[in-house]
Design a protein that fits this description.
Distance between the termini: 68 Å
Shape: globular
Number of strands: 2
Number of helices: 15
Helix content: over 70%
């Protein structure tokens, strides 16, 4: 009764969010994928760097949020543009923290805690977490804050599974899709609708990233080889098509309070479900993490006195604390040789092998020496930006490659 009284007293706007239909989830996954590829395009292809991409995306997001809060009803174009930008920005928040050396385990726990705190404050303030009653500015603020944290949490969780635990993005995508299906079935069997919604909302972030990764990666890496640009265009056109359809048909507009009343009714007595499901997730995630880390640690670090061959030299160099980096050194040398020979296209193609080798080795190497891994990871990112820039500069490319070779020992 209190929540309904607050809703009636403060209702000044039509509902500011769409009905949760199949169209909602389709666009959500598409926005997630486009957000991932757009961040890579700005960071690498336009050579803005992580900081420049973050600043630009932050400004665009602020403009989109101003438009979203300024509207007095749900408008598909503004709403989904805001979601896409939150997707990019939430991803960049996690990436920036990783670049600063914060482990993905810590990022996952931090964003999980912030999301839980947001929900607690939201319920304490509004006495409801109904996703169909975003009809006041305060509820809208809580809603978008929760959306931001779900993207950041989804990014951290997906990267933790794919990179730190060495599962890779295809397997991570399969696991996430299975969890989404299980949650959807549980919802059909009376799992709380709000709880189900936010669980799936979080999981669609790593799912979208896995789909984009599969479509854009080359066939040698297990993908379809469409490339980031083509994949982005396909998904962007799809988003525009669905959003245009929804704008014309208004198929996802919430026009009455019946759904709101239903949501608020199902929230009663749902506390035990939330506690049980969250506890189950924490236990399962903790057990899976522990078992996977134990299996990875079975690969013992090589002794500090061990050596590895140095390409083009007659002697061996001390083995890095990360292990054998000879493949990375070879690829870097090959790329530098191709640049010296004036073969820019060949160098750009060869650097793809560096990215693949580094990503595949991340789960094995990073636990051995996180500081050394972060140092090399930053230099590899710089090399990728220089080699994939729209207008590459040979001197800058060679400088980045030389710096990477130094970091590799």
């Amino acid at each position: 009764m209190v929540a309904q009284h607050v809703l009636t007293r403060n209702r000044q706007l039509l509902n500011k969010v769409p009905e949760v239909t199949i169209y909602f989830w389709i666009i959500k996954v598409l926005c997630t994928t486009v957000g991932e590829t757009a961040a890579d395009f700005l960071n690498v292809s336009l050579n803005l760097g992580l900081t420049g991409t973050s600043v630009l995306t932050g400004v665009l997001l602020a403009v989109a949020l101003i438009a979203q809060f300024g509207a007095n009803r749900y408008m598909p174009g503004i709403y989904w543009l805001t979601v896409a930008l939150v997707s990019v920005f939430g991803t960049l928040v996690t990436d920036n923290l990783s670049q600063l050396g914060l482990p993905l385990e810590a990022s996952t726990l931090i964003f999980g805690g912030l999301l839980a705190l947001t929900f607690l404050l939201w319920y304490w303030s509004e006495k409801t977490l109904s996703i169909h009653s975003i009809v006041t500015k305060r509820r809208e603020a809580f809603y978008w804050l929760a959306v931001l944290f779900t993207f950041a949490l989804g990014t951290a969780t997906g990267d933790l599974m794919a990179e730190v635990l060495g599962l890779g993005y295809p397997l991570t995508g399969i696991i996430v899709a299975s969890l989404i299906a299980i949650t959807a079935v549980a919802w059909r069997f009376s799992l709380n609708s709000v709880l189900s919604f936010w669980i799936i909302y979080i999981l669609t972030r790593p799912l979208g990233a896995s789909i984009g990764d599969y479509l854009s990666q080359s066939s040698n890496e297990g993908g379809l080889g469409l490339g980031a640009t083509v994949t982005s265009l396909i998904f962007l056109v799809s988003i525009l098509g669905v959003v245009t359809y929804l704008s014309m048909t208004k198929a996802d507009v919430i026009e009455s309070t019946r759904t709101v009343d239903t949501d608020m009714a199902t929230e009663r007595g749902a506390l035990w479900q939330t506690v049980a499901v969250v506890a189950l997730i924490l236990v399962a995630a903790g057990a899976g993490y522990t078992l996977r880390k134990s299996s990875l640690q079975d690969v013992t670090p090589a002794a500090a006195t061990a050596t590895q061959p140095v390409p083009g030299a007659s002697h061996s160099a001390p083995l890095s604390p990360l292990g054998d980096l000879s493949k990375l050194r070879t690829i870097t040398h090959d790329t530098l040789d191709l640049l010296d020979a004036g073969n820019q296209s060949g160098a750009t193609a060869r650097i793809d092998d560096l990215e693949t080798e580094w990503d595949n080795a991340a789960a094995r190497m990073k636990p051995k020496d996180p500081a050394a891994w972060t140092n090399i990871d930053g230099k590899i990112d710089q090399v990728l930006r220089e080699l994939r820039a729209t207008s590459p500069k040979p001197n800058s490319e060679k400088a980045a490659l030389t710096a990477l070779l130094t970091a590799l020992g």
